[in-house]
Sequence to fold (152 residues):
Amino acid sequence: MSSTPDEAATTNAGGFSEQERAAVQERAAELKKVRGRGGKAAADEADVLSKIERMEGPDRAVAERVHAIVTANAPELAPKLWYGQPAYARKGKVVCFFRSGRADKERYSTFGFTPEAGLDDGSGLWPTSYAVTELSEQAQESLAALVRQAVS
Fold:
C-alpha cells in the first residue's frame, strides 16, 4: 500500500496513520455490535483493539504494529485478552502476546511466546520473549518471521 505525503506525515512513530487509526476504531465499534449477537471471536478482537487504543502513545504505536504483524503473518491466530493484555491464540491456547511496559510499570514493553509456539529449533536454546521500545523495519521483519515460525 503506498501512502501520500499527507498520510505518511500522520504516521505515529511506526504506528498506524490517523486514517488507519480511524479504521481500527470503526472496526472495533462494528465488533462491539457483534458481541451482542454472541460472536465470541469478534468480541475478543474488539476487546484487544479497545485495549490497544487505550494504551499510552509509545506503547500504543508498538502494540498497533505488533497487532498488524501478527494478524497479517498468522491469520489463524485469534486475538484475545490474556492477563488484560493483547494475545493471539490457536484453538483457545495463547501462542504469543504483547505486554505494555507502561501498564507493567517497566521501562520497556514485551512481546513473547508461550510453549504453544513452535520456536524450538532443536538447539536447546530459543527465544521466548523480547523487550520492545520501538519497531524498526528490521525488527518488524524479524518479528514477522518469528510469528510465522511460531505457527508453523
In short: The helical segments are 5-9, 18-35, 40-54, 57-73, 137-151.
